[in-house]
Amino acid sequence: MPERATLNSVARQAGVSRQTVSNALNSPELVSPETRDRVLRAVEEQGYRANRAARQMRTQRSQVIGLRVEPVRDGVNGVVLDRFLHALTHTAERHDHRIMLFTAADADREIDAYADLVASVGVDAFVVTGTHHGDRRTTWLAEHALPFVTFGRPWGAEDSHAWVDVDGATGTETATTHLLRRGHRRIAFVGWPEGSGVGDDRRTGWRRALRRAGLPPGRDVAEPDGTDSGRVAAARLRDGGDAPTGFVCASDSLALGVVTELRSRGLPWDAVVGFDDTPVAAFLGLTTVRQPIAEVAVACVQQLQAVLSGERPEPVLLTPELVVRLPQS
Fold it and tell me: How many structural domains compose the chain?
């Protein structure tokens, strides 16, 4: 029968002390990335699991993190949060935390769920997604001194709490620059109505790239997210004067609608760029901006560990990458 994995056996395999193993698992900021990776490899290979019951008695914590499951949307961009959920669960388990999922129809019910979960389960902390201006959820959590981190900036108050986000403006700026280098000069933006922090951020990058190229502001159409909205936006842009030859979109859903409209008119769509790198983008051969979701999840867990230790971590803003593809006929 194989020997049960212990803190000592992990330390021996990784060539470090017991304390270093404990730091790597519970306070990763105290060890170098190389040492942490070596310890985590040994943990995974040996199947080591810390004694959760003992830790809970010692720290008076449940090791449980609450996360709301977003409502079903159009089946395209919801994939991003699905990826985040998987990556967050995997990362949390490596640090001996568990994710507790719950549903809520709106912000008020989400806040009610926070209170219920703290009272009934003793949830230690929360991960909040889909942040926006004047977010009541983060205000409530802060007022009740409950640890949390957001996947998304606290728009308008960037230093108010722990957060991790992806630089959408850099993503759309890179996408627009890509089209400029291909010779396009009339590049439109298909985005969401103003007021959305994420949407406005992505619109900013498109404007920045055009301004840097010495071009006047391009045409900008704002529609609710969705493939039907993208098709409506493309029709408006094509039927107006100075029809654009390139399209930068705030989401893959909108980009898919633009592609559908262009194809229905027999027009090329190789100059359409989406955002989020969903499976449908890969299937179609759509150029898009990919968010580093696994890195977001790791950073969220690290931020929560710091908050639970009484620290105030620095915000984390990650850079997305452009995935260039050739359209499938």
Answer: 3
